[in-house]
Amino acid sequence: MDATKNIGTEHAKWSPVATAGYRMLPEVNLKTRVVGATAKRLVNLCPAKVFDIEDDVAVVARPRDCTVCRECIREPEWEERVELTRKRDLFIFSVESTGAMPAPTLVTEALSVLTGKCDLVLAALDAALKQWTTHDNGVDEENPDVEMDESEGS
């Protein structure tokens, strides 16, 4: 038996992630008070079971479960009562593992790799900025007494 250890950038067969995705956090608001039989109808309209009834009044009980399928506002009368939006700066991430590593470990490792790549980009930007400012003002910042020729700036 031969065993080979590698990473997913080499070939997909070494990737421990089955599926990964994200969606914006849904926001569900009731514009008006929905009571009685109308509240029961609203609860039944939603396939994700986002709404509940408390004291004969409809409430948004599980907004995170909303898939924004729009079933609750498909009829014109409901558009005046229910508002569906998405928060543009909040995301729900979903990561499914193949079993090689637990999903929380996958996310932690992925963030570690991303942090390392960001550090490399920042270091390259700092080096480019330093080179640009050195060549731009005609003075070598490490040796301020030495002026640079025009040919050294290009």
UniProtKB/TrEMBL annotation:
Pfam families: RNA_pol_L. Residues 139-154 have a biased composition (Acidic residues). Residues 61-118 form the DNA-directed RNA polymerase RpoA/D/Rpb3-type domain. GO terms for cellular component: RNA polymerase I complex; RNA polymerase III complex. It comes from the Eukaryota. This is DNA-directed RNA polymerase RpoA/D/Rpb3-type domain-containing protein. Keywords: DNA-directed RNA polymerase, Transcription. GO terms for biological process: DNA-templated transcription. One of its GO terms (molecular function) is protein dimerization activity. Residues 135-154 are annotated as: Disordered.
